[in-house]
């Protein structure tokens, strides 16, 4: 998920926003406690580890100690491990839960012994969060399962199964098999998710059995897993799933079939199935069927279907998907249609034409689009050229793209140069300097990574790479400094501490923020397909929520598109550029919390840690792998039917806060 930009946002408007009166206010707290909590929020936002105020907070109330654990996890400094390990022994379960979760955010293997002890905590939730943290740290199951077994089979399952998918090892398959025999639906689903999210070949028989399970969620997960470890023989098993009324099952089965179908092979029943699914009233099923049809070409009925949708699709997205499917299938008509699309007035269609021409292997036509006046088209064309052509063929594209005025174009080619470290240090340092005045830092950060990659690939240039990175270590932007420190460490050089972040806000402002985010708040999100109501989790993500409210009430989101919609996964919007690279002109630090990505969760889109801005996404189905990785800052509380109708390119009409005193919807 691409987001960017690094300027400080103003809270002048946000601090005047009223709290939603539909929620009861928490009890008043002392001045000293409020001041301590404001300090913790400030240090977390600045990514600033200061031992004295953190240690002093150990003597605070239960809420203060819980927020101390949260802050230590968000700061992410390894020096916080000792304090968090101590909080794992706190008398209050809420504090122990926060400590276990935050130890997983630190990424330090030194936390494993304390987390193994916490996995058997008397509090089930603390134990489950400790297991989740151990999974993030890639701790082996061999050291964990025997400890949990001592608690009894049921307690072991409740703690282990929800995070089992994080343990990517063969032993997880056997544990998941046992979990499928549980009677609790949520534990059976967790076991199936462990088999399907990062599937192993030995799990294929289990996934085939799940394809006939009575629960739709398990059938969808079976199809998802078989897409990775199944074979052409599974097309027969997937065929009835693709025709199910439950959209999640149908979408996953259609995707799996497209992955598993051998090009040119006979697939009885699938041509008719795809034609029928392309007429589904569910937009996600309809679009997924069109996309999958490309894998089954040549087939006369599917060719006619895709040509018809290209000419007269119900939405612009249907036309785009039909063109890409024809290109994927190598249709004879695809080139002519892509050329037509490349001359279209709509930049979005020209960008899709670039993707199609990349699939068709048309470098000359792509070079023309790489000179398009619209940045999003140039990005798509450069991306397609780099993916489709040998390095020596695209050498001129690399040089031209590195001089492009748009940072997204430069970032695209610099990310390619991380994988293909072909340019000498001098040219990469020039690219880094060219990004000094960019409105967002993606190109500069990519240049830093490319410098590090070149230094590792060419031993004789390692010293030059280190010098160039050391010169960049004083960059005023925190994200750039952090990238520099990471690359210097990879080169074996001394890595400077990148923080703290200069937020420009003092304790008094953070105190006001806490007062403004004591309760959840609601917004109405009006779309071209209907209305959604979102409840914002302000206490768990105060800075993210205030930023969203400020942007919403200022009209920032009005008229923007949902620029990315992946059926049965997410809808994403909030980008003023419309291509996934834009933002509001500042970045937010992550506020990772323990809220879960169930259907309808609202999260902050990222291009790496602490890169949030205005782009947000809403999950269309449960996505546990996102838990603890992206800030959850809200949930859909009304308008489920609208969420199900959204497709890529649909317009956000407006977003406004609801409640007494909030700006009204006109």
Outline the fold blueprint.
Blueprint: H1 31-46, H2 51-57, H3 62-75, H4 81-87, H5 93-106, H6 112-118, H7 124-136, H8 145-149, H9 153-160, H10 171-180, H11 185-197, H12 204-210, H13 216-229, H14 235-242, H15 247-260, H16 270-277, H17 283-293, H18 300-312, H19 316-328, H20 334-342, H21 347-360, H22 363-369, H23 375-388, H24 395-402, H25 407-419, H26 425-434, H27 442-457, H28 462-472, H29 478-490, H30 507-516, E1 521-527, E2 530-536, H31 542-553, E3 564-566, E4 570-573, E5 601-604, E6 616-619, E7 632-638, H32 640-645, E8 652-658
Antiparallel strand pairs: 1-2, 1-8, 2-7, 3-4, 4-6, 5-6, 5-7
Residue share in β-strands: 5-15%
Helicity range: 40-55%
Terminal residue distance: 32 Å
Average pLDDT for all residues: 94
DSSP strand tally: 8
* CATH architectural arrangement of the domain at 30-195: Alpha Horseshoe
Annotation field: number of helices: 32
Gyration radius over CA: 26 Å
What do we call the CATH homologous superfamily of the domain at 30-195? Leucine-rich Repeat Variant
Output the CATH topology of the domain at 30-195: Leucine-rich Repeat Variant
| Largest sheet descriptor | 8 strands, antiparallel
* Principal-axes shape call: globular
Question: Would you state the CATH class of the domain at 30-195?
Answer: Mainly Alpha
Strand order of the largest sheet: 3-4-6-5-7-2-1-8
Indicate the structural class.
alpha+beta
As residue ranges, the low-confidence spans are 4-22
Report on the structure:
There is one protein chain. Helix content is 52%, strand content 6%. By secondary structure, it is of the alpha+beta class. Among the domains are: 166 residues, Leucine-rich Repeat Variant (Alpha Horseshoe); 103 residues, Leucine-rich Repeat Variant, CATH 1.25.10.10; 141 residues, Cyclophilin-like (Cyclophilin, Beta Barrel). It has an eight-stranded antiparallel sheet. Helix 15 runs parallel beside helix 17 and helix 19 packs across helix 20. It is globular and about 75 Å long. The protein starts with 30 loop residues before the first helix and ends in an 8-residue tail after the last strand. About 3% of the residues have low confidence.
